[in-house]
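Sanity check. The docking grid for 2-acetamido-2-deoxy-beta-D-glucopyranose depends on where the pocket ends up, so I'm generating a full predicted complex first rather than guessing from homology. Inputs follow.
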Amino acid sequence: MFPTFSFCLSLLFTLNFIQNTITSTLALGNETDNSALLKFKDAISNDPNGILVSWNGSTHYCTWHGITCGHKHQRVTQLNLDGYNLHGFISPHVGNLSFLRHLNLANNSFSGNIPQELGQLFRLQTLLINNNSMTGEIPTNLSSCSDLEDLYLTKNHLIGKIPIGISSLHKLRILWISNNKLTGRIPPVIGNLSSLIGLVIGSNHLEGDIPQEICNLKNLVMIEVVENRLYGTFPSCLYNMSSLTIISAGINDFNGSLPPNMFNSLFNLKKFTIGGNRFSGTIPISIANASALQNLELAQNHLVGQVPSLGKLHDLQLLNLQLNNLGDNSTKDLEFLKSLTNCSKLQMISISYNNFGGNLPNFVGNLPTQLRKLFLGDNQISGKIPAELGNLIGLILLTLDNNYFEGVIPTTFGKLDKMQNLNLNGNKLSGEVPPIIGNLSQLYYLNIRDNMLEGNIPPSIGNCKKLQYLDLSQNNLRGTIPLEIFGLSSLLLNLSKNSLSGSLPREVGKLISINGLDVSENHLSGDIPRTIGECIALEYLVLQGNSFNGTIPSSLDSLKGLRYLDMSRNRLSGPIPNVIQNITFLEYLNVSFNMLEGEVPIEGVFGNVSRLAVTGNNKLCGGISELHLQPCPVKETRNSILIH
Ligand SMILES: *[C@@H]1O[C@H](CO)[C@@H](O)[C@H](O)[C@H]1NC(C)=O
Ligand SMILES: *[C@@H]1O[C@H](CO)[C@@H](O)[C@H](O)[C@H]1NC(C)=O
Ligand SMILES: *[C@@H]1O[C@H](CO)[C@@H](O)[C@H](O)[C@H]1NC(C)=O
Ligand SMILES: *[C@@H]1O[C@H](CO)[C@@H](O)[C@H](O)[C@H]1NC(C)=O
Ligand SMILES: *[C@@H]1O[C@H](CO)[C@@H](O)[C@H](O)[C@H]1NC(C)=O
Ligand SMILES: *[C@@H]1O[C@H](CO)[C@@H](O)[C@H](O)[C@H]1NC(C)=O
Ligand SMILES: *[C@@H]1O[C@H](CO)[C@@H](O)[C@H](O)[C@H]1NC(C)=O
Ligand SMILES: *[C@@H]1O[C@H](CO)[C@@H](O)[C@H](O)[C@H]1NC(C)=O
Ligand SMILES: *[C@@H]1O[C@H](CO)[C@@H](O)[C@H](O)[C@H]1NC(C)=O
Ligand SMILES: *[C@@H]1O[C@H](CO)[C@@H](O)[C@H](O)[C@H]1NC(C)=O
Ligand SMILES: *[C@@H]1O[C@H](CO)[C@@H](O)[C@H](O)[C@H]1NC(C)=O
Ligand SMILES: *[C@@H]1O[C@H](CO)[C@@H](O)[C@H](O)[C@H]1NC(C)=O
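Predicted complex below; grid placement will be based on this.
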């Protein structure tokens, strides 16, 4: 049964007719949308990527870049210009695009107010203006956009309050208005947003408490209120919202204790961060029931007591308890670390700045090997550093500083070849600095200051080619400074307050990036090498309390950035080089208690008695009058030439 030829012909004709009709409608377009879009374009002052070139009369607006139209009616339903670095303001004419459902202007540089006219877009479902420079208030008329589901205004300069009218947006799922300058309290009518799943209002100037009405939001998944001025306690209903995956409330002024049962129903909670508040009391044992937790951050509060077992938190990646008052300076304090050996995904643990005492148990070596950062500093931990710590081969950072550790630095640390940042300072460690430190080829920061270490500085330290900060000060280190140290690209080198002897080698000049060099209070002797002038980035040069002799090198004037220079209590002789006057940024110079002689200059640092110390050099003369030195003998011209 084939159709007749004439039928086919008439069908062809009909199709042709329809085709022509569509084309003509396309060519004409809807005048309202067309002119609204052109007005919108007019308000854009800079379009560096030429995105809007296509917005011209030669084609229908439905083909313009960023525009999507409805198939049937050829009206604009989507306007998407995300991330084109557009400058200018948002034209109020956008309110004439009455079929618009999705408006995305995110990641541009729009400024000015968000137009009230957006309120005319009663079909609007998503409004994304995040990451621009919008000022003024959130327009009250947005409350007319009753279909609005996603509102993203984060990262602008919006001021004023969260408008009460938003409570009529019953379909609103996401309210993302963080990183603005919004003030006032969280309006209790927020409880009317029955569809809300994400409330993200952090980094504003909001104050007051979290209103009880939030309890009505049965679908809430994420509440993020960080960095505001919120206070009071959390409404306890929050703890019954098993839908919640994120509670993020750090850096506010919340207080009160965490209720014992609070974690019993939070089965989906992945992130609980309340650092930087005034929470008190203990960490509830019920935390073990929040078995989905990945990020637990309770830092910088007033929490006390023992840390409960966290062994059931199998997904835990980050645990931050630092800056509280946890632990009782007792032997059982660190028992909870044992439970953490079950948390195989842990990447970071910080318990620094608490009151944890007792020994560091050997089972610390059973923590997961992909643990990257372990902060144990500033507690009361005593005893030996367990050799088992060397099992944690994933570590890039370890702090054990400011505790009461004693005994040696375990040689097993040689296995920690990813280590970048090692802090052992402020303990009672003894023995030698183990040569295996040279195995730590990624080491960037090494601080062993203020212990009781003895022996030589191991030359192998020169293998740590990435070492930038090396502090071995306040120990009993002896011998000469190994030349290998000067092959490092250090920024800071502190060897002060040891018993190092020999000279400061001329290789010191290889430290061309060094910013601070402190070898004070040792037994170093010989000249201050001329090559010191090659350390052109030096700002702090600290040499006092040694036995340096010879003259002060005039090469010091190459150190254009030098701010602090202490050469006191040495055996330096000869004149103070005049060129020191020319070190423009020198804020402090101490040459006291040497055997210097001749005239004290008067320019630069020498012009201000509060920045200068020259006492204890019997043969110095002249200088500014406040120094009360003897006047210099009137020299014959010939002599004065000799002196300079
Ligand atoms: C364009 O749309 C407006 C508003 O819906 C309507 O009043 C007008 O008639 C339309 N014009 C054309 C040319 O379709
Ligand atoms: C108008 O837009 C078309 C692309 O749609 C482009 O090829 C043409 O160069 C534009 N005309 C002008 C005058 O910018
Ligand atoms: C479009 O919007 C502007 C500004 O809101 C308004 O003045 C104008 O009357 C509107 N034009 C049309 C055709 O609706
Ligand atoms: C903001 O927009 C700029 C430019 O598009 C982009 O590079 C940046 O990643 C955006 N920032 C955020 C937080 O989205
Ligand atoms: C904005 O830029 C960021 C970063 O490039 C990107 O993740 C985001 O998807 C962009 N768009 C919106 C609407 O945030
Ligand atoms: C804002 O909303 C009010 C009340 O619905 C209305 O009278 C007014 O015209 C709207 N303003 C604009 C600019 O659309
Ligand atoms: C919020 O919801 C309550 C109860 O459903 C209702 O009585 C009240 O009028 C609503 N408030 C606003 C501002 O919509
Ligand atoms: C939380 O839920 C428990 C049991 O489901 C109930 O007894 C308690 O009253 C609820 N608390 C709040 C604050 O809603
Ligand atoms: C919380 O702080 C407020 C003052 O902001 C105070 O009145 C209240 O007693 C505190 N509550 C607790 C439990 O510390
Ligand atoms: C902690 O305990 C140790 C050993 O019992 C004790 O020596 C130390 O003084 C205590 N520290 C504090 C701050 O109480
Ligand atoms: C500096 O002291 C060394 C011994 O430490 C001595 O050999 C040298 O001669 C002294 N130099 C001067 C200039 O006093
Ligand atoms: C110190 O600087 C002044 C001018 O800045 C210059 O005239 C003088 O020669 C310099 N002195 C020395 C010793 O470099």
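Relevant for the grid: The longest helix spans residues 5-28.
Also worth noting: The radius of gyration is 35 Å.
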